[in-house]
Automatic annotation (TrEMBL):
Coiled coil stretches, renumbered: none
The keyword Cell cycle is assigned to this record: no
Annotated ABC transporter domain residues: 4-233
Protein name: Iron complex transport system ATP-binding protein
Gene3D superfamilies recorded: P-loop containing nucleotide triphosphate hydrolases (3.40.50.300)
Organism domain of life: Bacteria
Molecular functions (GO terms): ATP binding; ATP hydrolysis activity
Record has Translocase as a keyword: yes
Task performed by this protein: Part of the ABC transporter complex HmuTUV involved in hemin import. Responsible for energy coupling to the transport system.
Assigned keywords, A-Z: ATP-binding, Nucleotide-binding, Translocase, Transport
Length: 252
């Protein structure tokens, strides 16, 4: 079963083609890492897939009515500042809005989803803190938890682990891998190719708006692809502790 299918998705921004004829299908249980250099089109792909940007081609998700879309896909955008000085718990509870009839208060099911998200993101000690008074990385974790509380079959996030410390980067990637193992689908953009190699089941590589590679990490992060697309050499080894990928030198 697929939750998201894109066909020939193309986005023009001014005179530039930000996304150029991308087709892909994301199945249940996949943790897809969206990789590519700055400006490659990662954000554009996700926003167009969600129907947040005008595009040509098709996205099965963008075709759905807004309310239904919010019950199928959770979205954590790249801008991660929390605007209102509410408690962490209240900020996370906002993730339940798509499930609540207008004006209804959260019920037992909502509370359970909120609590599960708080535990998953290790935010138990932060519940009553004011969300706007957290550090950048802490606010990012709250926003990931808000998206998790939405409890959708598809979870999409734009550079969710940027700015997190190493332990929280690893823990958060493990949360995404766990979601996939539980039968959900995850699409995350990220620049850390080492974490992408270790925790994603599939990588989609973009360059100048085009999809240039799509498959298991070892098939996408080849020496040729990494040099051509990112302009770096890399050390890539399969170890007993899993794959290790480390960018080494700039080649261009
Ligand atoms: N509002 C805009 N107007 C015009 N062009 C834009 C706009 N936003 C993005 N672009 C262009 O679209 C292309 C793709 O941008 P996008 O933000 O999708 O890249 P990205 O892969 O997410 O990059 P990054 O890793 O830097 O976040 C870039 O060439 C960018 O300059």
């Amino acid at each position: 079963m697929s939750l998201l299918s894109l066909t020939d998705l193309t986005v023009r921004r001014g005179t530039r083609t930000a996304l150029d004829g991308v087709s892909l299908t994301v199945g249940v249980g996949e943790c897809v890492g969206l990789i590519g250099p700055n400006g490659a089109g990662k954000t554009t792909l996700m926003r167009a897939a969600l129907g947040l940007l005008p595009a040509t081609g098709t996205s099965t998700l963008a075709a759905l009515p807004l309310a239904e879309r919010a019950r199928i896909a959770a979205w954590m955008p790249q801008t991660r500042e929390i605007a209102w000085p509410v408690s962490v718990e209240t900020a996370i509870a906002l993730g339940r809005l798509p499930h609540l009839p207008r004006g209804a208060r959260p019920g037992a099911l909502d509370r359970a989803a909120i609590d599960a998200a708080i535990v998953r993101m290790e935010l138990e000690d932060y519940r009553t803190r004011t969300a706007t008074r957290l550090s950048g990385g802490e606010q990012a974790r709250v926003l990931i938890a808000r998206a998790l509380a939405q409890d959708t079959p598809l979870f999409m996030a734009d550079e969710p682990i940027a700015g997190l410390d190493p332990a929280h980067q690893i823990a958060t990637m493990k949360v995404f891998a766990d979601l996939a193992r539980e039968g959900r689908s995850v699409i995350v953009s990220l620049h850390d190719l080492g974490l992408a190699a270790r925790h994603c089941t599939r990588l989609v590589m973009l360059q100048a708006g085009r999809l240039v590679a799509d498959g298991p990490p070892a098939e996408v992060l080849t020496r040729e692809n990494v040099e051509r697309v990112f302009g770096v050499t890399a050390y890539y080894e399969t170890t007993p502790q899993g794959p290790v990928f480390q960018p080494m030198e700039v080649v261009r």
